[in-house]
Here is the input.
Amino acid sequence: MNGLGRALFAAISTDTNKDIDQYPADAAAYRIPRGQFREAAKRMKMAGARLVAEWATDETPFGRGFGIYACYEKDSEYLIVKTHAPLEDPTFPSITKKFVPAYRFERQMKSLMGVIPLDHPDQRPWIKHEDWPQDAWPLRKSFDPAKPLQRISGKYEWIRAEGEGVYEIPVGPVHAGIIEPGHFRFQAVGEDIINLEERLGYVHKGIEKRFEGMSWEEGVRLATRVSGDTTVAHALTYCRALEAMSGSNPPKRALWLRAVMLERERIANHLGDIGAICNDAAFSFLLYQFSRLKEMLLRTNYKFFGHRFMMDTIIPGGTAVDISQDGTEEMLREMDWLKKEFNRLVVIYDENPSLEDRVRDTGILTPEKARDLCVVGFTARASGLNIDCRIKNPFPPYDRIIPKVPVLKSGDVHARVWVRIEEIRESIRLIRDLLNTLPPGPIKSNLPQPPPDRAGFAVVEGWRGEIVYWLQSGPNGEINRCMIRDPSSVNWLALEQAIHGNIVPDFPLINKSFNQSYSGHDL
Amino acid sequence: MLRILHQIFRTGIVTEPLPQGAEKEIALVGARLEEAIRRRFRRSLTIRQVDAGSCNGCELEIHAMNNPIYNCERFGMHFTASPRFADMLLVTGPLTINMERTLLRTYNATPPPKLVVAVGDCGFNGGIFGESYASLGGIGKIIPVDAYIHGCPPTPADLLNGILKLIGG
Here is the structure.
């Protein structure tokens, strides 16, 4: 038992049970009495843990009512705390006052599963908009997803600032550019932003519920499409969680190919975003330069993996595509070319004073706030938190080619850009390493069907940050629940905090520097 | 500054040239597209893109149409921030219930005559997300659609081709 497990036992030892049967090795899971749920959160907080995710399951097929789960992490140890709430009393103690990100997790659990966090400071729904019927809880087993939703009239209460000269700016859901829909409500005085409130859920497609009607093999196609810019990382996390619960080990070559694709996805998105950030600071030169490099990478993806975003290339048990010796060599040459081109552009970024003026000290997320909000990914690494599950929880081949990631403390737009610049350089190195050591052999192994009433858990560092999948099999070994936590689910809270004290015209720039997924959040 | 000029000089024009080029398809489609836009839209086709629930894959490819390789502006196409100025709505799906009202309002804010293009397999029938409590399926469920561009996601070339087919190049 590691640090977090010991901390949990010290608090509630007599009633703590390790869930050995249901939850195999990858993350320790403990069952505790419902009344102790908040006490457990307090102990985790004291132990210095981060809240990774909080979710609910409908376990009526097993006759167990609702399952309430919270996942914590510290120093590469993941720990899941679980409790039950009976059908007739679907409540649990809120942990929002201990961990800020629980604020939205719990609103979402209440909205979609109908389990009520007691003592939660905000009773408004999340994801579920005001025109849904109150008792529509799609994640419950009794809910028929095929039936069209009835609509009611309702009103969403915004947080409002008052006083002389205070005014409100509503933005969205349809934004000015080619981006996803979401609503931002600013309270401002002059150009200064007093408060920003986000409202999301516009692209809620019912993904988690959709999984429940699919076979495990079909599921990967859906996981691929959770967020179109993160197809590889989402598919990979799903597959790893599934492989963990069914005890399958993909062949070595497949592991290497998966990592190559994961790093290529990282580079392509970082390139596009760095360019777009420069464009939002009115430096369109770099937008076009970086998008040129990105397009070349996408074309190579198409040539060797059959798809520009490498969709449907990762499947349970391995990969669906292989690359030839020629492909390997061409990709190696591409990395040499990219490195040269990229470094030239970085010098231009770094030496441009008008750009520097916009990106430095803008949209600061302090390390303290980053820690409180439990942010992940490059956002965390730009705010002094050394979190990267490629390093902390390496799976092959990352245990051999340990990535080196930069950690900056300033937490501003520049820091987020610079972390990504360094990550591109590192990913180029990783891809070269991987291609040079690509093992021969098959690319897929058989995947046994998972046994009933099991859970699988996996984390993968996508380009935005840590992606978490938690899968649970039902009484017949089918998908009972698929919990997805995109990095955006926690990082959206950070945008609201980073905006304080900034001016309205800097919002697009700051927002772009986080570039979060609406689809991955809304599911 | 010298570095910037040097980089511009070094890069040259990467836009795929019209008569002969690495990708003939883009060149051919582009030339015909330009002609159709000149004829029917007085050289300027203004597009408002609306994400009605997509996974953002289609948005990436619509973005790519604007990169210097495809450079769709040279054909007279450009994207506008307001539906009031738009000739065409380029809508990605699936249509979610939380976007239904918004899409309808955007459609009504676009002055006639207007064209609607539904993008991607999801814009056609909901794709892998299908029809459910949260997804109404294709864009055609609530607004009239003039053309569908299939693909998951459609490539920039598919998008240019689809728009060309609709405006009759």
In short: Chain A has a mean pLDDT of 91. Chain A touches chain B through 59 residues (CB under 8 Å). Chain A is about 40% helix and 15% strand.
